[in-house]
Amino acid sequence: MDHLKVALGCDHGGFVYKQKIIDYLKARNIEFVDVGTHTREACDYPEIARSVTELVASGQVDRGILVCGTGIGMSIAANKIRGIRAALCGDTYSARVSRAHNNANVLCLGERVIGEHLALDIVDIWLKTGFEGGRHKRRVDIIE
């Protein structure tokens, strides 16, 4: 996680967890960009997903984290952007493998479907896990 820079975004359904993730990042001195939303008022998640994924795809940040009610909408929107490999994770194993095998560069979470402590464990594992490369790189290259 050395020198990692993360872009964060959420819609109204993921606002609370985004704040918890910000606290996690600050406690570990991980640099981040918060693209919003900054209130609990309803907003359009595809716009937030685009803001985060454009930062990732352009190389301005290393990874992105998106949170909405289920994580589904964010993951669909994020994966429309070229160069993005967004993974919707609801467990720690998927978080680890999404990085190790799929080189996921955006993590999507659902605030309404997983508990807060699990969400933070997923973030922790996802940020700490590297890409294994090898046979997995060949497969990611096929996707790209």
Describe this structure in words.
The chain is of the alpha/beta class and 144 residues long. Strands 2-1-3-5-4 form a five-stranded parallel sheet, sandwiched between helices. The protein has helices at residues 15-27, 45-57, 72-78, 92-100, 116-128, 135-143, and strands spanning 5-10, 31-34, 63-68, 86-88, 106-110. Helix content is 44%, strand content 17%. It is globular, with a radius of gyration of 14 Å.
Based on Cα principal axes, name the global outline.
globular
Unreliable spans are none
Separation, N- and C-terminal Cα atoms: 24 Å
Helices and strands: which structural class?
alpha/beta
* Overall average pLDDT: 96
In which range does the helix fraction lie? 40-55%
Order of helices and strands: EHEHEHEHEHH
Q: Number of DSSP helices?
A: 6
Rg estimate, integer Å: 14 Å
Main β-sheet: number of strands, strand sense, barrel status? 5 strands, parallel
- Largest sheet strand order: 2-1-3-5-4
Count every beta strand, where a strand is a DSSP E run of 2 or more residues: 5
Measured by DSSP, the beta-strand proportion falls in 15-25%
List keywords for this structure.
144 residues; alpha/beta; 6 helices; 5 strands; globular
